[in-house]
Design goal:
Strand order of the largest sheet: 3-2-1-4
Largest sheet: 4 strands, mixed
Number of domains: 2
Mean pLDDT: 93
Low-confidence stretches: none
CATH class of the largest domain: Mainly Alpha
Order of helices and strands: EEEHEHHEHHEH
Number of helices: 6
CATH architecture of the largest domain: Orthogonal Bundle
Distance between the termini: 48 Å
Number of strands: 6
CATH topology of the largest domain: Arc Repressor Mutant, subunit A
Radius of gyration: 15 Å
Helix content: 25-40%
Strand content: 15-25%
Structural class: alpha/beta
Shape: globular
Length: 169
């Protein structure tokens, strides 16, 4: 079994937990997801004995997230180890094609992944994204431009979209 290196850090949006494997970052928990939720997700995907505390293994991703929060990074380059179903991976791949500072609707996302009537299914896949911010699920909005839900709360989604210049209220 692969080792999972995890740590946490404070950011402009609050306390973040992060985990990676030798293949890349696999989980980011942004505020509103508890430490317990973070470790429950890890337990669902890895043996508990393989999870170790290691900040240095996550340094690059932490540095990139901090640069993003400070408006100094528009595209992440950290290696990712995405864990999900084939459909989720397809949705998350499409999320990464949404340019910084722009948004699309759930309906547009559904069309882009080849399920034009599947906006609820892509919404569910979007909500299950274990790598928020880096895989920018916050860039998907309702058909009327409403921010809709977000795992870290609508205020955090609004903060991220304002940071990117995607919304000006």
């Amino acid at each position: 079994m692969p080792k999972v290196y995890c740590t946490s850090f404070d950011s402009k949006i609050g306390h973040i937990y992060i985990a990676s494997t030798d293949n890349g970052v696999c989980k980011i928990s942004i505020p509103k997801e508890s430490k317990k939720d973070f470790f429950d997700w890890l337990s669902d995907h890895f043996d508990d004995d393989d999870v170790v505390e290691n900040k240095s293994r996550n340094k690059e991703a932490i540095d990139q997230l901090n640069r993003y929060f400070n408006g100094k990074l528009a595209k992440f380059s950290a290696q990712l180890d995405q864990i999900g179903t084939t459909f989720q991976l397809r949705v998350w791949k499409e999320l990464m094609r949404i340019p910084y500072g722009t948004t699309i609707t759930y309906k547009q996302l559904a069309r882009r992944v080849g399920v034009p009537r599947g906006f609820r299914a892509v919404g569910t896949a979007n909500g299950g994204n274990p790598l928020p911010i880096v895989v920018p699920c916050h860039r998907v909005v309702g058909h009327d431009g409403s921010l809709g839900g977000y795992s870290a709360g609508v205020k955090t989604k609004e903060f991220l979209l304002r940071l990117e210049g995607a919304i000006i209220l």
